[in-house]
Amino acid sequence: MELEDINTVAVLGAGNMGHGIAEVAAMAGYEVALRDIKDEFVQNGYEQIEWSLNKLAEKDQLSQDDADAALERVTPLVDVEEAVGNADVIIEAVPEKMEIKKDVYGEVEEHAPDRAIFATNTSSLSITELADVTERPEQFCGMHFFNPPVRMQLVEVISGAESAEDTLDVIEELAEDFGKTPVRVHKDSPGFIVNRILVPLMNEASWLVSEDETTIAEVDSTTKYDMGLPMGSFELGDQVGNDVSYHVLEYMHEVLGDAYEPAPLLETKVENEELGKKTGKGFYDYEDGNGVDIP
Ligand code: 3HC
User: What sequence ranges are listed for the domain 3-hydroxyacyl-CoA dehydrogenase NAD binding (predicted)?
Assistant: First the structure.
């Protein structure tokens, strides 16, 4: 498939990443089918896209006409056959669990056109293992966006053991057409490049706090103001979603060993469903409008 053959993109999963990817694709002029398993999930994703496009228009980063046109190109759907039946590229952004993703690929393979490329937005899981569930491992690769997709420039394009060179090339071109900068990741190892570095950093910060060595505010103050990162480590955890970091670590722990064991503080946040900005509370409280308060 050539870039010119791509008109319709299906995005599976309307959560933080899914709706952000759908927005980016629609802004680039693609017809987008946004699918989730429940109407309320997909409507919520659609409303987030609307909010974000209007925010960009308010700040003159996009004209209101272009924002409206992008939203028009997004169709929220629950029916999987309708969502993928005419898709040229299917980008999957469902929860970071191997079993959930495998189930989705089993279902999607039944309804997707033969020409369609499957691209997973997994943060850490084996591309090769996911591709093996399908009948098209050569038309399968990783396409890993960063949160929030509309603001983050990088996309990791990850090769599975059987990904065809043509598949990787066209997905890189698609990322460029979305206005992003793709980086090819040749080795399909847990967390790829960015999360192999970033998620252990966030976990180490959680270990320090779990062991009473320091506080959340002190860590974030050092990461943000001394190390020069745009957000504090815990602030970033809340942005990414504590469930996402936790699942990435669980997988790294299983495959790579004890150095990646999730910290108790992070585990507690997940157990209490304090998942970050998306639930109104994480390491910081967003509900009362306080948000991040770093000295
Ligand atoms: N759409 C539109 N507007 C948005 C938005 C969105 N999706 N998200 C936030 N905004 C708005 C906010 O509402 C705020 O608006 P306001 O000014 O009216 O209050 C504004 O954008 C904030 O923008 P600023 O210009 O003040 O903020 P910054 O320029 O500091 O940029 C940032 C924000 C780009 C998120 C920056 O803080 C950053 O780069 N943070 C690091 C993010 C990062 O590292 N992400 C990767 C995480 S790893 C990952 O995702 C991988 C996964 O697999 C785990």
Answer: 8-188
The answer to whether residue 289 scores a pLDDT higher than 70 is no
ipTM: 0.94
Residues 174, 180, 181, 185, CA torsion sign? negative
Cβ–ligand 1 distance for 147 under 6 Å, the answer yes
Is the domain spanning 3-185 CATH 3.40.50.720? The answer is yes
Is the link from the previous residue into 230 a cis peptide, with omega within 30 of 0? no
**What superfamily does domain 195-279 belong to in CATH?**
N-(1-d-carboxylethyl)-l-norvaline Dehydrogenase; domain 2 (1.10.1040.10)
8 pocket-lining for ligand 1 (C-beta < 6 Å): no
Residue count (the chain): 295
| pTM (two decimals) | 0.95
